[in-house]
Amino acid sequence: MEIKVDDLNGPEVHELLREHLLSMHLHSPPESVHALDLEGLRRPEVTFWTVWEGGELLGCGALKELDPGHAEIKSMRTAAAHLRRGVAARLLAHILAEAARRGYTRLSLETGSAEAFDPARRLYERFGFAYCGPFEGYTEDPYSVFMTREL
């Protein structure tokens, strides 16, 4: 698996992000969907990575700087054909290493509370994330779960 910074211009990436947004809207009401669209992912405070193998897109994820010591994980998604192959774990380890390299002391995320998000929450728990309250402009929401980890 190769992980690389992506410019968000490829059609495969657009399709994976479309799938991601559709899934978010399937399991949460619109006001509770916090996934970034293409323009949001292109903002200067966001770094977006894709995971590839043999020319095939396996997944994606992003890191958004909130302040010099705190960043947020965004847009973690594994392509449906590659679920349960370790793509998300590999990418999450990469993002954690990059966050530490950048000198962040805290990494946080928001994910859904529905059963469909159970695998994501278990992954974050395995990587040492703990449940917390809302951060950086989020508010309490029955459709959201907030997690954080000190680095």
Report on this model:
By secondary structure, this protein is α+β, with helices and mostly antiparallel strands. The protein is 30% helix and 33% strand. The chain is built from 4 helices and 7 strands; from the N terminus they run βααβββαβαββ. A 7-stranded mixed beta sheet has the order 1-2-3-4-5-7-6, with helices on both faces. α3 links the parallel β4 (70-78) and β5. The chain is globular, with a radius of gyration of 14 Å. The mean pLDDT is 95.
Regions with little confidence, pLDDT below 50 for 5+ residues: none
> Helical residue percent?
25-40%
Order of helices and strands: EHHEEEHEHEE
CATH superfamily of the domain at 2-106: Gcn5-related N-acetyltransferase (GNAT)
Helix run count: 4
Oligomerization status of the protein chains: single chain
Radius of gyration, in Å, reads 14 Å
Measured distance between first and last alpha carbons: 25 Å
SSE arrangement:
Layout: E1 2-5, H1 11-27, H2 38-41, E2 46-53, E3 56-67, E4 70-78, H3 87-101, E5 106-112, H4 118-126, E6 130-132, E7 144-150
Parallel strand pairs: 4-5
Antiparallel strand pairs: 1-2, 2-3, 3-4, 5-7, 6-7
